[in-house]
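Appendix C reproduces, verbatim, an entry submitted by the partner laboratory led by Prof. M.T., so that reviewers can inspect both the input and the predicted structure.
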Amino acid sequence: MSSPLCHPDAWTDLDTDALVRLYDAKTTAILDLLVPARTVMCHRRPSDPWFDQECRLAKRRVRQLERVARSADVNSSAVAEWTAEHRAYRALLRRKREAFWTSKVQSERSSLRQLWRSVDALMGRGRVPPSEAIGARRRLRSASTSALVTPSSRRSTIGDQAFFVAAPRVWNSLPSSVTASQTLGTFRRRLKTHLFAVSLT
């Protein structure tokens, strides 16, 4: 072979640092020949806004226990500990998510247009339609109600299916016991009960 690494006579005049540089240069050249280096674009997904330091520490703890559990017996205490910690981690995520959305809805309750704008930004969706109707409450109704103004559409097929048209209609079709819910959890339970009752009728 032509590589200086295969000829000890070529090392006689080299000191330790030179030998290290020679070895590093030759092995790098061989690796570049066999496995060429290439540039990879890594797109990092941003964390959810409710994923705070407490969630990060809990996730790290679950991963540590998972590595231990994978090398342990199925019926060992390590597997049971990892399972319990994983359930607690999922419950923590649910609490954080519900608390975030409850706070978000309460803080932007007076401006539903801003609320939908925030939801679209979090979901990575398109911009909010340029209609102010979605952010206004019906003036002919009581201020205590949560009915929305349904904007008119020019096309009964495509226009009526647009989100800013269909969403107020669906919301207004719900009973007040559902729309008047104070928390996200209460809203979900009442909505589930309502939909279940409708499916039986």
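The chain is about 55% helix and 0% strand. Additional entries are available on request from the coordinating office.
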